[in-house]
Write a structure and sequence with these properties.
binds 3-hydroxypyruvic acid, 35% helix, 306 residues, single chain, 7-stranded parallel sheet, binds NADPH dihydro-nicotinamide-adenine-dinucleotide phosphate, alpha/beta, 12 strands, 11 helices
Amino acid sequence: MIKRPVFLVTGADLAPQALALLADFDMVYAGKTPTEDDVVRLCKQHDPVGIIVRYSRVGAQAMDAAPSLRVISKHGSGTDTIDKQAAAQRGIQVVAAVGANAAAVAEQALALMLACAKSVIQLDQRMRAGHWDKATHKNVELEGRTVGVVGLGAIGLRFAKVANAMGMRVLGFDPYAQNLPTFVQRADWSSILSESDVISLHCPLTNENAHLLNASSLAACKSGVLIVNTARGGLIDESALLEAVRNGRVGAAGLDSFAIEPMAHPHLFCEEPRIVLSPHIGGITADAYVKMGVAAAHNALQILRA
Ligand SMILES: NC(=O)C1=CN([C@@H]2O[C@H](COP(=O)(O)OP(=O)(O)OC[C@H]3O[C@@H](n4cnc5c(N)ncnc54)[C@H](OP(=O)(O)O)[C@@H]3O)[C@@H](O)[C@H]2O)C=CC1
Ligand SMILES: O=C(O)C(=O)CO
């Protein structure tokens, strides 16, 4: 029997619509949260022509373990867990399904911003404990406030558009984006820090921006700033953020991404009611899951068939 080419998926499953596109391939699944070693082992065992990255790191060792590997296709947008330099050196192409989960993540960022501004989780917990804080608590009104959007790509621009429709002034920081829409006012980093009432991160994690928000940048923020991070945990120094929430420099933080995932439990973030948490789920709605799978399969096939 002729052996069919293999796709390795670093996750437990793919949407049926994506699988239909890959019907000519044998599929191998690395499980729910595979380690880099799992990926290396499966590459050695199955020599895939393509890897669809849902979760996990894919480094040089995995690439070297799969001589047939030609494409690494991200089931989503951020490619920070893929060693792109090692891939380029080996002639392996890296592609991403940018845009497939943009609506989902922009909505998650808006949900976290609103949860922070309106103390949604905190007040819910207080009421369940028998408190009625109407006379003592004041929420933040977002209309007329300034939001600093960091990264003006598929997600950042969608988020910015809705924020602007809510009456917010939108400042945007992105050294690479061109032709910004009129509702975004381009700003330098120091203006983002000094003028924003809300800062929402929507840029990739790269070598140049690790700990973009750290003790010194947080100290330059407006007192009470709301921080939203649906991008990557590594963009924030988490200890500095925790300290800034505790001392009130940061009014509240809504986080969907963490330096280490899954986030450890117990974690100091869980002790702070003004930190709202979600388990890196922004990009995962039922609709986005299908769109990401289809785009990841389609992108990989385009490369294999070129
Ligand atoms: N929470 C979740 O589930 C999800 C999180 N994400 C995260 O969101 C990020 C953005 O996604 P998406 O909008 O689809 O990606 P895009 O590539 O469409 O947009 C990112 C934008 O940020 C720019 N950028 C790069 N470096 C910096 C920097 N140092 N400062 C400011 N801007 C920068 C990019 O420029 P250039 O194109 O030149 O690099 C690009 O314009 C992803 O990289 C990922 O980390 C994405 C999807 C799901
Ligand atoms: O698309 C991405 O980058 C993600 O984080 C998916 O969850």
